[in-house]
């Protein structure tokens, strides 16, 4: 195998350029993020971890443009966008407003009980099935405790199946190590002056703090 | 039987002339099989009949003796009788069975012939000659009929055919005259083909009690493999399956499963069952397994797409994986109510503007509402008091807590949206919905009930 072949391999990346192979990313819909992220969008090869301290800071809105694009792809290829253990009802009219194709959404409710080690094993099983099934384009999962071997398995599965895997995890998990390609948290932007005109689709006020990004330095954005 | 021996038919209804053949006997050709060794056991015959369906769709069992196969329709496909014979003989040899074969244009003649000799009669004109030489025993008529005929000095079928019809009908019986007509193709002789079972049922006995998942999974794989073989043979598929664990000195543990689309492959049958037994708590070890399918349906195989769906679908190998396999696998583990889709409903009340869609019959949804809707909806609207903790069980049963904030430091954006609906079904709602930025920056969907003036949290702009 020549060096060129190795460099073209999707699982190999060079630290210096940080750019991963084309087609392995999906545009975020936010110019500044697209510019920053290697490959020009959310990485499709590997895990993305989102740390949510509280709901309502835009943790779904930030994914919506990419999810809408993927849902069209899913409709054409007859694949699924799987939501595993969502904390509330993913509201169909709102998803439709964001341009998501509802017929491709599949919602799974695993049991919430943890195993002996306190790990959210049942949820992780569903995520792994969805990621490895070859029939999903994206998996959004809300998981509690997870151990590194389980995350590494998911990471490998996501790399092989090219399925966009986003794990929403409690903020406490930010300190633990993880094989994820991209980790970010969202922060509130309090003190928004009252009376300011509401921007279209309420996209203002999402503060993204990139904690880890393969090939880039951590940075924070206000979208 | 005496009524048959001394019939009291009115004179004028006696068939004194052979009925005109209404259809040409040459239209059909029957192959009769007489099983000599092993003895014609019902289960053995059944298994041979299963196999014989590769030769013809019309397989008629002859209980206690053998089979009848209508092969006129298959001659062209197998390019001649010789090939059909060859395949049948090869199968019998494979099973190390001994059987006699006879071919005749009518089923009854074939059945009579095969009891005595191995012979091929292809022309209807030669039928009378061929069966004429048979002894009366070949007809398998009742004892007393045969004794009566013997007392009359008749030895062969040809002797019967020589008798005047009216006399034969009067002295011996109409039924037996009709039998002679059927054998010669003068009367139609319709045979009902073997009824294909409506469902498959198969069980396996384990040699010892076990609750080892690996052993059970292996036994299950054997069952689904044999189902796949059988379903392929029958060109059928199933939409439901029922798995029972047999226990010693206790009732069975039964679990049922529905597939999203009918399936026939072993892997598709097996995956949800494996997911199920991984979670199933067996109260006691099992000594056996039984798998029963729902009603068999005709197999429908989708044609592969001429052109791949999109260039974006790069992983070409995934085309073979059905989109429903994932749903079935997840449902196998969690139950069908915990895996679903979502859909829009044309309804003003927000909590009713969506529904779970269980079967994937999603049509074009209603137009999206003009106002922005939150991506998260709370399962139940939650009472919100200024400055107090607002906590609610979320969809997973955990308690979710909203950071308390007062109306003073909240930021109300835009004009409220009035939703007023449902006066006709007893769930009247008159609400003013506000988009509120909470103390920590979270964007919330609160409403004020127009009657009680209480505030409720209903959604989160996630």
In short:
The complex is a heterodimer of chains A (223) and B (462). Chain A is an alpha/beta fold.
Task: Explain how this protein is built.
The complex is a heterodimer of chains A (223) and B (462). Mean pLDDT of chain A is 83; it is low at 193-203. Chain A is α/β, with parallel strands linked by helices and 223 residues long. Chain A is globular and about 50 Å long. In chain A, the strands form 2 sheets. Chain A has an 8-stranded mixed β-sheet with strand order 6-4-7-8-3-9-10-11, with helices on both faces. In chain A, strands 1-2 form a two-stranded antiparallel sheet. Chain A has helices at 3-8, 31-36, 64-77, 92-97, 121-132, 148-161, and strands at 25-26, 42-43, 47-52, 80-84, 89-90, 105-108, 136-142, 164-170, 182-187, 207-213, 220-222. Chain B has 462 residues and is an alpha+beta fold. Chain B has a 5-stranded mixed β-sheet with strand order 2-3-1-4-5, sandwiched between helices. In chain B, strands 6, 7, 8, 9 and 10 form a 5-stranded antiparallel β-sheet that branches. In chain B, strand 16 and strand 17 form a beta hairpin. The longest helix of chain B is centred in the middle third of the chain and has 22 residues, at 213-234. The radius of gyration of chain B is 37 Å and the shape is elongated. The relative contact order of chain B is 0.07. The model of chain B is unreliable at 1-14 and 309-319 (pLDDT under 50). At the A-B interface, helix 3, strand 5, helix 4, strand 6 and helix 5 of A face helix 12, strand 11, strand 12, strand 13 and strand 16 of B.
